[in-house]
Specification:
The complex is a heterodimer of chains A (147) and B (574).
Chain A: H1 2-14, H2 26-39, H3 51-55, H4 63-77, H5 89-102, H6 104-119, H7 135-145
Helix pairs in contact in A: 1-2, 4-5, 5-6
Chain B: E1 8-9, E2 30-34, E3 38-44, E4 49-51, E5 61-62, E6 64-66, E7 73-74, E8 91-93, H1 95-98, H2 106-110, E9 117-119, E10 128-133, E11 136-140, H3 142-161, E12 167-172, H4 178-190, E13 194-200, H5 201-220, E14 227-234, E15 239-247, E16 250-259, H6 263-274, H7 278-281, H8 287-307, E17 312-320, E18 323-330, H9 331-337, H10 339-356, E19 365-369, H11 376-385, H12 400-412, E20 425-427, E21 434-438, E22 442-447, E23 455-463, E24 471-477, E25 487-494, E26 506-513, E27 519-526, E28 538-542, H13 552-560, E29 566-568
Parallel strand pairs in B: 1-28, 2-12, 12-13, 14-19, 16-20
Antiparallel strand pairs in B: 2-3, 3-4, 3-5, 6-7, 6-8, 9-10, 10-11, 14-15, 15-16, 17-18, 21-22, 21-24, 23-26, 23-29, 24-25, 26-27, 27-28
The chains are: A mainly alpha (147), B alpha+beta (574).
Protein name (chain A): J domain-containing protein
Domain J (chain A): 50-114
InterPro entries (chain A): Diphthamide-biosynth_chaperone (IPR052276), DnaJ_domain (IPR001623), J_dom_sf (IPR036869)
Amino acid sequence: MASAFSAVAPSCIRFRPQPPPSRRTSAAYSTAERTCTSTTTAQIDDSQTSFYQMLGIPMGATCQEIKAAYRKLAKVLHPDVASPLSPADEFMRVHKAYTTLSDPEKRAHYDRTLFRRNLRRPSCVLSASPSYSGYNSRRTWETDQCW
Amino acid sequence: MAAEPAYTVASDSETTGEEKSSSPLPEIAIGIDIGTSQCSIAVWNGSQVEIMRNTRNQKLMRSFVTFKNEIPTGGVSNQLAHEYEMLTGSTIFNMKRLIGRLDTDPVVHASKNLPFLVQTLNIGVRPFIAALVNNMWRSTTPEEVLAIFLIELRVLAEVHLKRHVSNAVLTIPVSFSRFQLSRIERACAMAGLHVLRLMPEPTAVALLYAQQQQQTVHENLGSGSEKNALIFNMGAGYCDAALTATAGGVSQIKALAGMTLGGEDMLQNMMHYLLPEMDNLFSRHGIEEIKKIGLLRVATQDAIHKLSFQSSVQIDVDLGNGTKICKVLDREEFEVVNQKVFEKCEFLTRQCLQDAKVEIEDVNDIILVGGCSYIPKIKNILMSICKRGELYSEINPLEAAVRGAALEGAVASGINDPFGNLDLLTIQATPLSIGIRADGNSFVPIVQRNTTMPARRELIFTTLHDNQTEALIIVYEGDEKVVEKNHLLGYFKITGIPPAPKGVPEINVCMDIDASNVLRVFAGVIMPGTQHPVTPFMEVRMPTVDDGHGWCAEALHRTFGSTLDLITVKKKVQ
């Protein structure tokens, strides 16, 4: 089911008539977010950074370390403190990483998929898989399409 | 970057919209706590928060506006000769309880025995509110009353700061709908104030707490580990609870809960208790009745205040025409009469703890603020829920919210403090769920309550009928399953859905809340197997409804039935 939607998502974004400025991308952008949220725990983009890397912490980080890293990043990335033109997306991604890793159940699930991903070699080519997901595929998309 | 999307509909009531997130302003925004009964105003003075005093040296000013002369005056500048003067029919108060409410709202109905005119026709429009001026009803609105009051506050700040004041952070109750927030913004705009942030009251307290914790850590060179605080705020009109996780000057709001419940409800209960036939007596709403109800109100209020510090109180009030109340009231009686109020307080606190997924043992501090925090029963409830013997004592319960608002004012204005006292951040959460009407008459949330902001969520819907070419997106805010019990924020139509069997077109509805709490709703149609959205996504800033919106949903239903309805595609993804 999810793959049917995701198949649509990236392409619809790509063909949006006008790539709008960051603050206005939400509708299109979110399509990717949905793909992502529905599959985060199931699939992780091979070639990109993990939630751990995003927060700048080792895989064995304690709950305290995760929280501390999240706070440190929030103080830089949160739209209230970041430059007014910076989009909220970066903070939202960090928050997603934080919520996943700070919940023991979600973290365990995530760790398992991360482990499986590392076993599989990057044989899967991103664009060939319509249901690929993960933040960094989106980040690539953003860089390509938005900025 | 400046290109506008093809379809953008912004509500006309949003006078303060886009500038919200513009570049940092050099001017330090003031913090305003507009209470149902009292207001205060504060500002970051360069090294700390300073609460401003009016010419009578008051930090807390009564929230009311008197329409006696040509120019109405408010509680900031106006000296009341006596408490009773507030009850002659010419003074409007409790505007925070009335703002943004329709004449079908029970809270408005409960306001009908206030000593001015609140009339309801139950048709879903704003109530008729009026002050008695020279024996004539002079109609007004809560926005106007609030604006008059805010102008006085602004003038006070300008005199104090010797500069023009235009930016403000205001505290608001957790339970306020976005429509009510838009009314507050409207009042601010009328008063020449630009709203930098509207902060739920307990989150302002949380920010103050975060600053205090950070200073303690600095002094002790401590580890700065995370602290959870439960904040319970109860004033005259509203009751809020919040759970905040604090470390390193960052206050992360884990859960918020609020309801329209406060000292006013206890006062009404006590008045009914002391004079059971009150509603009949005062239904005529003449000058005599207003005076009587005023007398009873003042006497009861006085007694309630005293019961916070003594176990019993003597009430002696002569309402005229042989109606006399002579009674000794004790604290237990007060607690029994208001049992339901206290039960709701407990419910709210437990709900907040549950939503935050924080165990009671992990709560480090319990912070009780607001005018009702002096009531012994409220203290006991909080301590018994948290199994604690004491409450956090480093915060002045009546100044906490305004101090937090002033801190946020400085932080949001981009002010830096060399000592790191403004090295603060609040990560807010949404107090209410936001969603649309779908699956018949159900409320389908898209953004769940207590979602961290900024946030973006979406759901896929589909058509209910074969060859359905249009769909109605009706946006609500709240947490009730039945859609009408929630707050209507607005509605718009998606057109140009290609004819297809029901269930085939994918209607994508996305909601985006930015860090300054602006809500945008996007919707578009994608046909399976195609690459494009059928038409450009439609983007609508909410709320779009105005004061007469009470009948909107009903009218939409009458006109369209279920012809433009949507259903959810599958289990929601987030």
